[in-house]
Amino acid sequence: xxxxxxxxxxxxxxxxxxxxxxxxxxxxxxxxxxxxxxxxxxxxxxxxxxxxxxxxxxxxxxxxxxxxxxxxxxxxxxxxxxxxxxxxxxxxxxxxxxxxxxxxxxxxxxxxxxxxxxxxxxxxxxxxxxxxxxxxxxxxxxxxxxxxxxxxxxxxxxxxxxxxxxxxxxxxxxxxxxxxxxxxxxxxxxxxxxxxxxxxxxxxxxxxxxxxxxxxxxxxxxxxxxxxxxxxxxxxxxxxxxxxxxxxxxxxxxxxxxxxxxxxxxxxxxxxxxxxxxxxxxxxxxxxxxxxxxxxxxxxxxxxxxxxxxxxxxxxxxxxxxxxxxxxxxxxxxxxxxxxxxxxxxxxxxxxxxx
Length: 355
Prior knowledge:
By secondary structure, the protein is α/β, with parallel strands linked by helices. It has helices at 53-60, 83-90, 110-121, 126-139, 156-168, 186-203, 214-220, 238-243, 248-255, 295-299, 324-332, 348-354; strands spanning 3-17, 24-38, 42-46, 68-73, 76-77, 93-96, 174-178, 206-210, 223-228, 231-237, 305-306, 314-315. Strands 6-7-8-3-9-10-12-11 form an eight-stranded mixed beta sheet, sandwiched between helices.
């Protein structure tokens, strides 16, 4: 498969000042992101709140201008497109937002909401647009009766289906899904996820799936990238990353998945403070919370690169894969002299069973 979206060295910094005469500083919201999305695949993006996932999505949509780097769509740099070219590309790039209520206009009928992109981009008669809207509503599991209803008359799951119908109205090539099921209960989540899978099989959509829910990412995506404080710290095939997470942050993140016999979660081991996104540290950004931290981690800039035998599995950690000696030292707290924190080792076989 050829690449539909190519992101290279993307940076997005936001200037801030502290006080009237404070020095101008920058929030490193997205910092040197490089990834590729192939046609027809689902790419998952996970990480804590504030790590830069949504900023990355909005930069792809050109809501933000990048500080540095490029984004190409269909081999065209989106930031070099003129107004007409960008309007054409809008038909092929759509987004489904997190909140199904606030992402649609409460004063418009459902028919008008779904009809809006058709009216903007296609030359269809009023009758043709109405017929197409009702067909789209049927595609997402809503009857034609919803055409004249208003958003407040719909449940959360139904409103999200309306958002999906609007996103697929122009048959786009690429859809960004920003936490599309986080506001829904579990039973409705499953229905929406299955709907998205069915639509992808039918139309060949390419998805960038942003989520906090690791089980959703595992179910939906063939590739995954883990973000921490503006950087990708681990990336690869979903099966490889879930089975053998190698970056310490990824290990802790995945071990937080609850099980029936689990009473304490690994997030309790996230000791130390997260560095600020304003002028972050030179070395590893996870060093202040990492159980395996070494002096070299504080000063060495580690690139995202293959450090295992698995092709395409990239890690931003010069200690990865974590060897047995480091694991034992962290578990017994023998690294206390250099400031390491006590943390049980993550067993890959046990983690795979939990997942």
